[in-house]
Amino acid sequence: MNRIFDNSAIEDRIRGICEENLVSMEIFAACFYGPNVLCDECRKTEMNVLLVVEAYPKKISIFSKKSKGINLNILVIDKDLFESDVEQGRFGDLVSDIVSLPYAPWVNPNYFENIEVKVKRRFVLELIRNLILQYPELSDMLLIKPEYFMYETARRQVKLFPPLVLNLSDVFKSKMEKQNTAFIMKGYHKALKNLETENYITYSNGHVRIVKSFADETIRHRNRFSSVLTSIRKGLLPYIRSLSLRIRTGFWQNQILLNRRSKKQEKELRKELDETEKFLLMPSPLGLIPFSDKTTIQDFIQKTVPGGDMLDLEIEEMGGVLNSVFLLRIKKNHGTQKIVVKKYENWQGFKWFPLALWTLGTKSFAVLGKTRLEREYSNNRFLRDHGFVVPRILYVSVKERLIFEEYVDGEKLTEIIKRLIASPQENAVIAGEIVKTIGKEMARVHSLGVTLGDCKPENILVTENNDICFLDLEQSTRSGSKSWDIAEFLYYSGHYILPIHSDQAARIVATSLIEGYIQGKGKRGCVREAASAKYTKIFSVFTLPHIILIMANICKKLGKDETSK
Length: 565
Prior knowledge:
The protein is of the alpha+beta class and about 575 residues long. The protein folds into three domains: about 10-280, Beta Polymerase, domain 2 (2-Layer Sandwich); about 295-405, Phosphorylase Kinase, domain 1; about 410-565, Transferase(Phosphotransferase), domain 1 (Orthogonal Bundle), CATH 1.10.510. It is built from 21 helices and 18 strands. The chain has helices spanning about 10-20, 40-45, 80-90, 110-135, 145-160, 165-170, 175-195, 210-220, 220-250, 250-260, 265-275, 295-305, 350-360, 370-385, 415-420, 425-445, 480-495, 505-520, 525-530, 535-540, 545-560, and strands at about 25-35, 45-55, 60-65, 70-80, 105, 145, 200-205, 205-210, 280, 290, 310-320, 325-330, 335-345, 395, 400-405, 410, 460, 470. Strands 3-4-2-1-5 form a five-stranded mixed sheet, sandwiched between helices. A hairpin with a 4-residue loop joins strand 11 (about 310-320) and strand 12 (about 325-330). It is elongated, with a radius of gyration of 31 Å.
């Protein structure tokens, strides 16, 4: 048994009061808890005690006593019931939350240390899974400060039961704040070390990173995790509300807390709990960027251009039907820097409806600006790390939904295709080689499990070094249709061919792309599927039927398995 009080007589008296109410049942483990449990002075007037008892017939009960100036609030719980809440959250963490906050182990301290690490391990796993489901493309690139788990857990507790902010403000916004947070984080660090050993996470310069294999597994089983969590919380919410505040603050404390609690403390805590995204970071050439960052275009310019170095600034709108895109020309003493800025608007109303209607039943597009920004950032960095030519991302402002990218010089593939259509004999060789290279690069992208999602020729650039640069990766994903990429590239290219043109360009584009794709180890089955009616019907709205037929037949022919020839 740990010594909690300097005066052993006080401990003996408290133990005697606890045992009186257990009717000869043995205390398996016990601890003192509450926001001021680490404060020696506070222990002399108010104490909350958790008693864990094996085979406790009442399962859970709460009672209070007053002895020689000490207000004693006692919570008794059955050991199996307590452990089921700790390990699975069976009762909405009604009791297990106690050991996620400051407590003083009294009887069987090793038991409580193990229990604390268990519950914090589960909390961390739940929060990591939530991050994976919220940011499926980005989650394995996130850098997470360990404090995130402490504050995000508190934020969710308050969201579930708002009156808890009264109790938590004494934990996080009082004279004991440093001692309390240090105590809480000690258990989280142990839980994180366990999860690192189990290959759920890794540590990188003091930050937590989610292991990709765990992220992939979570995404595959997303429905299971969300349904279990929802059913537990919905079923237990009334019960949690009726007991939670009594358990955490004690009987006498409730009215006192409501009257004395500093509104300033509470307001400060609410604000802090609303900003947990500051502990989530994204790497960039300009340093780590918190998700809470609200950098505007003007802020970015001030950050990147030292005072007096900029001679002139031009902002040109580059168009974009579904996004706002701008080109910044920053003239400096040593030259001009071009930066592309994308503002990811939410697709709503008229903008979104035609696109949804056009691909109904075949292709779903990411609608929310946040989701499209996430995909652009994560897959841009992923492809760049694997040697692909993509615009270098300089900065990201998640709150403003802005991405700042280096401008890439080059020629849009649309211009090359238009020249091929106008003069197929003169441009067949050059255009054919370029499109074949694109097919190889597309196959390489697919081999990494990534699909481009919006693979129109206007989103592909040929640089001065004849490198293929993929632009606009906001619809790219790790789980999309590879056949869609092939189909969109081909049939969208075909819509530039008018009735006055020959069909030779259609044959060159389709043959070159598919040959390059197969040479790049792309799957023939994806090529065959690109010829299916579910794709051809979509593009028949604006591409001539005979052009679609020519390209689809080439897909069928070249997509045949070699063994079936």
